[in-house]
Every structure is written in structure tokens, then in C-alpha cells.
Specification:
Length: 307
């Protein structure tokens, strides 16, 4: 499934050739497709390894970023994160950097794997607090560590306004786009964040959270790792049930302005995802629709005085 212009096709034969050329010690291990997101394609290698290949040259910058920073962040976090064990180099067949990581066992967050959503929300808040408190170690918001989600909302307004219009035209019968636009514009009127810049994971959605026995066990996919304001980090809470969302907010003691900016980022990521992937990635569009419906329902509940 091709999602982006300039995407490099990947299949098992290509992955096997990369392993034979650069990782002969693993070249004969069993290899199986392990999923694909918007940025990377993954193959499980044996029982203990994962091959991670970026879809495009732009996404390839994130691979090098993970290779550089994950080993430095991992010892400072209580929860496991991906461990790169091989930094793949470009070849004629695949002209981008790629990685082999340790496989992390666990289940994606979902109704079949989590029973106590408030506990999950508190666990996630504990991870975010740790990550945001880590010293930047000289990292600055530039190049691969600069991403729109760690900045202010204002520079995204023209883009997101266009995406809202796209959504109104394509999914307006499935979604209250007018409410989403009202919430977006209300957040634009808020003061910009003024606190220090911090480490951001950038995409703490359920598919990037692994649980064991219902508790958060590990956080994966640091392709969105960046330095910036923390507001957007909280945007994926609208992918989780209300009890998880409230427990997370309470644990971090987030004020109304921060929370409303976070909600605006949830809107931005959702409507832009629908606009960009509408005809190519229906499963991701469904995720975005679910997030945006949760935003609308949450806003309606707050207006009605629901706890």
C-alpha cells in the first residue's frame, strides 16, 4: 500500500537482501511482516528482533534520530523503549537508513487488553512526566528534532483550516466539523505556551503503547521524537476512554489553557490525517474519525456539565 509520493517499495526479498549484505549473523532467521504505519514498514526477525524501514527519504531522517537518541534516553526512563542494535546503511536497492531493534513483547492498548483505564492513564502520565523532565543534553529544536507538533498553533492555521474544509466536504455527514472548527479557533485565541521546551515523543497513540496485564509496559515508535512545547504531547488522550483521559490530566495537573491547546492539536492531527489519507489509508482515517468524534463528545459533555 503506497501512501506517499516518492515511496520506496519494500518486500521480504528486499529486507532479506539487506540482512544478507549487512547483518549476516541474522540473515537466515525467520522473517515475517509485522505491520506498517504512515512512516515505516516493519518486519519481525526471529523471536527477538524487528527490522524498521522508512517509507520515504523524509521519514528516513527519523531513523537516524532514533539511532542517535534512543540509547541516550532509555537509561533515564522507567518504561522500556526501542533499542536499536543495528544502524542499516543505504544501498542501491534501498537508498535510506534503516534499523534493527530489539523486539518488545506486549499488546497494543485496547478494550481487550486494558481493564482499568484510569490506571492506564496514570501510567502514561508517569511516562510523560519522566520524558519531559529529562535534560535536553544539548539537543535543540532544529532539523530532525523540530516538528510542527511542538510549536505554536498559529503557524498551522492556514493548513488546518484547509483540512477542516476538506473534512466538511468529504466526511461532513459523519462528523460535526463546525464544532471542531469552533474549538480550533478558540484555542488559537489562547496565549501561546510559555514554559520550557522538553523532549516529546510526539505520537502517544494506542498503537504505540504496549501493555502487559493491563498496565503500561513499553512505549514504541519514536519517529516523532522532537524538542518543543509539551501541549501537543497530550493530544492523543482523545484516543483513549474518558476515564484514562481524566486520570492522565489529574496526574499531570494540566490547566485549562494547556488542555484546550492539546485538544486543538488532537483536532489538527485528526483533520489533517483524514485530508491526506482519505483515499489511501482507510484504517488510519477511521482512527482519526474516532479521535475527532471523541473530541466533539467530550466538548458536548463539558458544556452540559458532565464530570
Amino acid at each position: 500500500m503506497t501512501l506517499h509520493e516518492g515511496e520506496i517499495p519494500v518486500d521480504e526479498t528486499l529486507v532479506r537482501s539487506l540482512l544478507q549484505a549487512q547483518c549476516r549473523q541474522w540473515a537466515d532467521l525467520p522473517l515475517s511482516h509485522a505491520g506498517a504505519g504512515t512512516d515505516n514498514t516493519m518486519y519481525r526477525l526471529g523471536d527477538d528482533l524487528l527490522v524498521r524501514l522508512p517509507r520515504t527519504a523524509e521519514k528516513g531522517r527519523a531513523v537516524r534520530k532514533e539511532q542517535e537518541w534512543l540509547p541516550r534516553l532509555a537509561p533515564l526512563l522507567s518504561y522500556p523503549i526501542p533499542e536499536p542494535v543495528h544502524a542499516g546503511t543505504p544501498t542501491g536497492a534501498f537508498p535510506l537508513a534503516w534499523s534493527v531493534h530489539r523486539w518488545i513483547d506486549g499488546h497494543e492498548v485496547g478494550p481487550d487488553t486494558v481493564q482499568d483505564w484510569a490506571l492506564l492513564g496514570a501510567d502514561l502520565a508517569a511516562f510523560v512526566r519522566e520524558l519531559h523532565e529529562i535534560d535536553l543534553m544539548g539537543a535543540v529544536r532544529t532539523d530532525a528534532l523540530s516538528w510542527y507538533r511542538g510549536g505554536a498553533l498559529g503557524p498551522c492555521d492556514r493548513w488546518i483550516s484547509g483540512c477542516l474544509d476538506d473534512c466538511r466536504a468529504t466526511v461532513g455527514t459523519e462528523l460535526d466539523v463546525d464544532v471542531l472548527e469552533q474549538l480550533w479557533r478558540a484555542a488559537l485565541a489562547l496565549p501561546e505556551p510559555s514554559g520550557p521546551r522538553v523532549w516529546l515523543h510526539g505520537d502517544l497513540k494506542p498503537t504505540n503503547l504496549l501493555v502487559r496485564e493491563g498496565r503500561l509496559h513499553a512505549v514504541i515508535d519514536f519517529g516523532g521524537l522532537s524538542v518543543g512545547f509539551p501541549d501537543a504531547e497530550h493530544s492523543t488522550l482523545w484516543d483513549l476512554p474518558p476515564r484514562a483521559r481524566q486520570a492522565y490530566r489529574d496526574a499531570l495537573n494540566l490547566d485549562d489553557a494547556t488542555w484546550n491547546r492539546a485538544r486543538a492539536w488532537a483536532i489538527a492531527v485528526g483533520v489533517s490525517g483524514i485530508s491526506y489519507y482519505r483515499d489511501t489509508f482507510p484504517a488510519f482515517v477511521a482512527e482519526c474519525l474516532a479521535r475527532l468524534r471523541a473530541v466533539v463528545a467530550d466538548a458536548a459533555g463539558r458544556r452540559a456539565g458532565a464530570p
